[in-house]
Design goal:
One of its GO terms (molecular function) is GTPase activity. By secondary structure, this protein is an alpha/beta fold. The chain has three helices and three strands, in the order βαβαβα.
């Protein structure tokens, strides 16, 4: 599970670099990836599809992945994301 601050556009590139480094770890080979695009309750938040595009998630071939818009503050999207992660773990 990887959580991104959807309202922090300045750090999005840095976040993408870090995510790619993690996905190259041999211990994580084939592990499913859930990305929470958090803080969707803020007016400055990028939509999840734009974040997926910026992070180039569509190029990931070695991992099943899902991007889930969410607001931890409001609880929106958290349950849906965790349900997806649970299904992937079975």
């Amino acid at each position: 599970i990887y959580v991104i601050d959807s309202s922090d556009r300045r750090r999005l590139e840095e976040t993408g670099i870090e995510l790619n480094s993690l996905l190259e770890e041999p211990k994580l080979a084939g592990v499913s990836l859930l990305v929470f695009a958090n803080k969707q309750d803020l007016a400055t938040a990028l939509p999840a599809d734009k974040i997926a595009q910026t992070l180039n998630l569509h190029s990931i071939r070695d991992h099943k992945w899902q991007i889930q818009p969410s607001s931890a503050k409001l609880g929106d999207g958290v349950q849906e994301g965790m349900e997806w992660a649970t299904k992937q773990a079975k």
